[in-house]
Design a protein that fits this description.
By secondary structure, the protein is an alpha/beta fold. The protein folds into two domains: about 5-40 and about 170-365, no CATH class; about 50-150, abc type-2 transporter like fold. About 65% of the residues lie in helices and about 5% in strands. The chain has a four-stranded mixed sheet with strand order 2-1-3-4, sandwiched between helices.
Length: about 375
């Protein structure tokens, strides 16, 4: 391997990047746009959920109960005259739930008997329905405790539940969505940056010119990987800066661990894209394959949004061939929990194995011939 030839190939690829604004846009512009889109647009924490309130007989007790919901940041109280009107609003998706206080609510509450509260939740979105149901239960429990205190009584539940949330005490979904989104962005940028590199050389006819030069295929591959690795890591640094400063995601682990594992994963993503680029000699085909093979599995099968443990067993086994699965586990630990080596080391080893396998396939597939 000649250092002079390798330096010339790397310089040639850097010049190609500077002359092709799309590469710079993929590396720097697309991560920022995706972070802004998903960071602000995707939230698993419902807030200001519109809930219809049907109070058949207003009283001081019903006013106190309704006020507890009005003071909550999670609900937007929408008064309704009767149940048919509330049900029509629920079916029209104007509200996501109904809370009904019957006419005898205050009397039964005063007599010390049971005062049932009817709650209807729109189950079309099952996740939101479960969260809203939990919110209603929480507001009801707090109101019941305050009501008992106002009556000079002490509410004594049969069991006291004390919860403590580790790593994400504020329960902000953005704290784990943004690190996972960085993984998806790195997968997409790494795959797209190199997926069309070799295909572009074939389409433009410059690959034939390289074939007649003394450069080896190993030098060509390294000359392709180095510039895009630097470009991809630059996009990663920009994504991390946006995550820390704009979305205020905590970084409790070591910066060096973050850089080292990100470099390892970027090599895997670039190797995946380069392998696609070698197999598909059309830029359009290479781009489509890169989207299907890299972006979709990273988005759906990596644990970014959907919990892997909740997937069917066959799909869970399938996720083991998705490189983003391992890096998401690393990144969420580094951001939220710190340097948890029992998570970092096994997943890093899996990335090393996958990277070595991809590089081996690239070496066997890339030949200095025109066939």
């Amino acid at each position: 391997m000649s250092a002079i030839r390798l330096r010339g190939l790397i310089r040639k690829e850097f010049l190609q990047v500077l002359r092709d604004p799309s590469s710079i846009a993929i590396a720097f512009l697309m991560p920022v746009l995706l972070l802004l889109l998903f960071g602000y647009g995707v939230s698993l924490d419902p807030a200001h959920v519109p809930v219809a309130f049907v109070v058949e007989q207003p009283s001081a007790a019903t006013a106190q109960f309704t006020g507890a919901f009005r003071r909550s940041q999670y609900f937007q109280v929408v008064p309704m005259a009767d149940m048919p009107q509330a049900e029509a609003a629920l079916m029209a998706h104007r509200v996501d739930g109904i809370v009904r206080l019957r006419a005898d609510f205050a009397a039964r509450l005063k007599d010390g008997g049971d005062a049932p509260i009817q709650v209807l939740v729109n189950g079309v979105d099952a996740n939101t329905a479960r969260i809203v149901q939990g919110y209603v239960t929480g507001v009801w429990g707090n109101w019941l405790e305050h009501y008992a205190q106002s009556q000079g009584q002490e509410l004594q539940p049969p069991a006291e539940l004390r919860t403590r949330v580790w790593f994400n005490s504020a329960l902000r979904s953005r704290n784990y969505i943004v690190p996972g989104l960085i993984v998806v962005i790195m997968t997409l940028t790494g795959g797209l940056l190199t997926a069309m590199v070799m295909a572009r050389e074939w389409e433009r006819g410059t690959m034939e010119a390289l074939m007649v030069t003394p450069v080896s295929m190993r030098e060509v591959l390294i000359g392709k990987l180095v510039p895009y690795f630097i470009l991809g890591m630059g996009g990663m640094v920009l994504s991390v800066v946006v995550a820390l400063w704009l979305f205020e995601v905590p970084l409790r682990g070591s910066v060096w661990v973050l850089v080292a594992t990100s470099s390892l994963f970027m090599l895997v993503a670039l190797a995946m894209g380069l392998l696609i680029s070698i197999v598909a000699r059309s830029q359009f085909v290479a781009g489509m394959i890169a989207l299907v093979v890299t972006f979709l599995p990273a988005f759906l099968l990596s644990g970014f949004i959907f919990d892997i443990g909740s997937m069917p067993t066959v799909v869970q086994w399938l996720t083991h061939i998705v490189a983003a699965r391992y890096f998401i586990a690393i990144l969420q630990s580094v951001f939220l929990a710190g340097d948890v080596w029992s998570v970092i080391l096994p997943n890093s080893l899996a990335l090393i194995i996958m990277g070595g396998l991809f590089l081996l396939l690239i070496r066997r597939s890339a030949r200095k011939r025109l066939e």
